User: Which sequence fits this backbone?
């Protein structure tokens, strides 16, 4: 466990699943965490849950594909704290289909949330990090970046995030800002439940099939990703930047 006392973190897609686990982990380590999501009811429910165990969290409803929303978010962070130490670009959606069935909306919506959202949040947080000469940006990619049937949009977006991560690491390194990416494998979340539904099988059946392919022979949990984020968010990772860590129970890339 790393100490993040007096640090300010922003986590997108924080209302459930991986984002919720990341937010809880960072707050447990002492950070003041902004929970960011477009799902208002789920967001405030999560915020109340974490606040009830005495964690320092604040909910902000934001559409990360809307530049004015993102500007408002970071203006609020700066006004209250004068800095932002950690940004976790976690928000994501899936609109799976084989390419010949995939609509333009399916493509655009996935690209906007994953790539445009990551771009906007990173663009506006970098001003605060550069001014403070410190920062940690962690972008959530996926093993799907290596190719995944029925996910041309999602795979392309997640591969794009990896390229974005490496480029931003080069640009921001001289300001003591590191940028890394985490690529989860199969993690048990509402999103992977949706994959089971698309395939017409139960979630238990999907888990059983996936576990057979995972060397450590178990499915991943949101906390597995949260622990990796915790390391990249900490001062201990200061000489690591531009990397993609596959948290997938075995070798991937």
Assistant:
């Amino acid at each position: 466990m790393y100490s993040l006392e007096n640090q300010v973190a922003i986590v997108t897609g924080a209302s459930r699943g991986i984002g919720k686990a990341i937010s809880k982990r960072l707050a447990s380590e002492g950070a003041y965490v902004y929970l960011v999501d477009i799902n208002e009811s789920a967001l405030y429910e999560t915020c109340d849950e974490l606040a009830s165990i005495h964690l320092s969290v604040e909910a902000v409803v934001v559409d990360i594909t809307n530049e004015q929303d993102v500007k408002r978010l970071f203006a609020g962070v700066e006004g209250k704290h004068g800095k932002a130490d950690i940004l976790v670009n976690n928000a994501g959606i899936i609109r799976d289909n084989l390419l010949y069935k995939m609509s333009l909306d399916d493509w655009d919506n996935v690209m906007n949330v994953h790539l445009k959202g990551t771009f906007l949040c990173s663009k506006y947080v970098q001003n605060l990090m550069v001014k403070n000469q410190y920062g940690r940006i962690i972008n959530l990619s996926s093993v799907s970046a290596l190719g995944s049937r029925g996910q041309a949009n999602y795979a392309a977006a997640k591969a794009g995030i990896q390229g974005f991560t490496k480029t931003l690491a080069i640009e921001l390194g001289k300001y003591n800002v590191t940028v890394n990416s985490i690529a989860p494998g199969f993690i048990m979340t509402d999103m992977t439940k949706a994959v089971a539904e698309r395939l017409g099988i139960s979630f238990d059946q999907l888990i059983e099939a996936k576990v057979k392919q995972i060397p450590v022979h178990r499915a991943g949990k949101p906390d597995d990703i949260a622990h990796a984020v915790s390391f990249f968010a900490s001062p201990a990772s200061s000489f690591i930047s531009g990397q993609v860590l596959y948290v997938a129970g075995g070798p991937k890339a």
Summary: The chain has two domains: 8-185+223-246, 187-219.
